[in-house]
Amino acid sequence: xxxxxxxxxxxxDPRMELGGALAPELMAELGAAMAAGQVVVxxxxxxxxxxGRVVGAEALVRWQHPVHGLLGPNAFIPAAERTGQIRPxxxxxxxxxxxxxxxxxxDRPLSVSVNLSVRNLLDPAIVDDVRDALERHRLDPSLVELxxxxxxxxxxxxxxxxALRALAALGVxxxxxxxxxxxxxxxxxxxxxxxxxxxxxxxxxxxRRSHASAAIVRSVxxxxxxxxxxxxxxxxxxxxxxxxxxxxxxxLAQGFGLGRxxxxxxxxxxxxxxxxx
Length: 277
Ligand code: C2E
Ligand code: CA
Ligand code: CA
Ligand code: CA
Hints:
Residues 23-275 form the EAL domain. This is Diguanylate cyclase. With 277 residues, the chain is of the alpha/beta class. It has helices spanning 2-18, 22-35, 77-82, 86-104, 118-122, 125-136, 150-155, 157-169, 187-191, 201-204, 211-227, 239-247, 264-276, and strands spanning 39-48, 54-65, 69-71, 111-115, 144-149, 173-179, 196-199, 230-233, 252-253, 262-263. The structure holds ligand C2E and calcium ion (3 copies). Residues 58, 115, 147, 177 line the site of one calcium ion (CA).
């Protein structure tokens, strides 16, 4: 049953992206859904490639819809951005994720990563929202990572750079998500206060079969090391890929082969299983 939930999310996404008719009705419900507790956060473990231990978890939002079932973020994040609902949504995710992270510290310390969307970066209020969440949950900022995509940093470089500097000043870690899929120059890596790159899973899932993907992953790992950044491989689906990443000296790994995203109350078991493996 546990696997079933994750599989359904993964399978539901493409249909929802195509289903334009459903979206406007859905979006009218989102505010009420958040208030009713239907918007929940799942967590996917991030593993230290060298030690094999879990060091953090990425917060991934879902909508437990009473009629449509468990909806993945691709079903409602783009529309939430268009309809101005992304700020309350991000606040909800920050609140859940930082509350969980504060709980984890007592038992098995882990960091938490939260995804920001392009709209969040263009709204200076994001800085207050992150600061408020840190204070509300009395969380050490170094335990919190914020993930932004390469493209979102490029949309309005001046504005997003200002927001990123203010976020970095709070003491949180900033990562570039889906690294390698954008068209940005490498110059911004020097200009922005970024500490981590997440290699897009399209390269990682192909690592074993494709020389080109292996070359790309290897060079992103090297680039990260030379720039003093840490590097995460996303989309690790099997042990063989993990071994290759270890040889390349990639720092962290994330993927279905290590652990799927699960509800907060199941993360503990998943972490225990990975640590023991
Ligand atoms: P992402 O940030 O790149 O997150 C990773 C996505 O890849 C997740 O999908 C995760 O379930 C999936 N994934 C992880 N490991 C594997 C693997 O080994 N193989 C495959 N095929 N997939 C894997 P999910 O949860 O559907 O999220 C999709 C995207 O939605 C995320 O991509 C992120 O960009 C966005 N997102 C998720 N939660 C939030 C949120 O709270 N706020 C915002 N703004 N965006 C979010
Ligand atoms: Ca992410
Ligand atoms: Ca990711
Ligand atoms: Ca990604």
